[in-house]
């Protein structure tokens, strides 16, 4: 295998990585917002379940969550395809962390805004969707991007349940060719090229938000 | 029930290795992070570039990729020296976790008002004396909750060492699965063990954080960026 074949093979895996990260990101944002709302809006009877779920998902390593979803559920007859297990597992664990940031974003909208929504006759849901969310979203952009950058990296864990993402592909190529350093350096380079500028960009956004919106 | 207890006994051995792996990594990570953070505010530009470049580089490499690289790349070499794979995991974990923690430490150093550096200088202190006598004593206490959070992250991330055959608790659980064919039960037990290890630390970390934030100027401000144990993603 020449350099060209190796790189193109790794980029194929890279696309799967992108698929895992994007899917997990969608799960993470949805789940994280849901958790943040449950704690913020205060749905009766949901406070404790939300707290227990968050604590569990934050304390158990992502790899173990993936194993439970894939091997664990598989053994009791619930067959989850590897890609789905990876997307859900990485998504919910990431969402449990992001929920805290989303909650903080929701808290930036003052309570009087919500009261104003109610007083013009909007329902709780409508107030949340039309009044609170639009004002909170600018604060959520940096955590959204951070989530995605993080997930691009944690997507490598999907290899542990057999998803052919970039690291999985790389290990296969190493098995075939024995070119360890070569393959690993290419993988790391691909990651550096993609995530370093993204992380920089988020950093700039964050510091800008701090100066323009202020507190 | 008896079976469950025997699992706990088997997993216990792995948990000890997880704790050893974590302890060694935490000690080395704290030292390296402190060095990198101080390097990040060094008066020499070259030192600053190296320190910040290190943090930027290793934050963009996935931990699992780094572990695999270190294992494949150095594994035969360390096996030749008689070093167990545990040390390779410590090495990779330290490199990765320090990249994150050093950034937090550096933010702590930068939170010390500029005027203090200038005052120290005008009193005739050298840069190194300023760091040791003026800056570090103020920067260390607020760094304690951050370090606790990093420890939580390291415990969780140490589970990845199972991929490179370090017999920490996740690998022991996987071996137990091959013996019992009960993945759901075994992995849930494993999850509970991690919970038992991490939840007390999380509570402690939140307490310590509150104790320190009570004195800071940011009291009452909206927590735009609450410190949550993230670990190396």
User: What's the CATH superfamily of chain B, by name?
Assistant: MetI-like
In the CATH hierarchy, what is the superfamily of one domain in chain A? MetI-like
The structural class of chain A is mainly alpha
CATH topology of chain B: MetI-like fold
Distance between the termini of chain B: 37 Å
Mean pLDDT of chain B: 90
The oligomeric state is: heterodimer
Question: Would you kindly provide a written description of the structure presented here, covering whatever features stand out?
Answer:
The complex is a heterodimer of chains A (215) and B (233). Chain A is an all-alpha fold and 215 residues long. Chain A has a domain at 15-163: MetI-like (MetI-like fold, Orthogonal Bundle), CATH 1.10.3720.10. In chain A, 83% of the residues lie in helices and 0% in strands. Chain A has helices at 3-42, 47-59, 62-75, 82-107, 111-119, 124-154, 166-177, 180-212. In chain A, helix 1 (3-42) runs antiparallel to helix 7 (166-177), helix 2 crosses helix 4 (82-107) and helix 6 packs antiparallel against helix 8. Chain A is globular, with a radius of gyration of 20 Å. The model of chain A has no long low-confidence stretch (mean pLDDT 91). Chain B has a single domain (9-213), classed as MetI-like (MetI-like fold). With 233 residues, chain B is mainly alpha-helical. Chain B has helices spanning 2-40, 45-59, 63-81, 85-110, 114-122, 127-157, 169-180, 183-213. In chain B, helix 1 (2-40) runs antiparallel to helix 7. Helices cover 78% and strands 0% of the residues of chain B. At the A-B interface, helix 2, helix 3, helix 4, helix 6 and helix 7 of A face helix 2, helix 3, helix 7 and helix 8 of B.
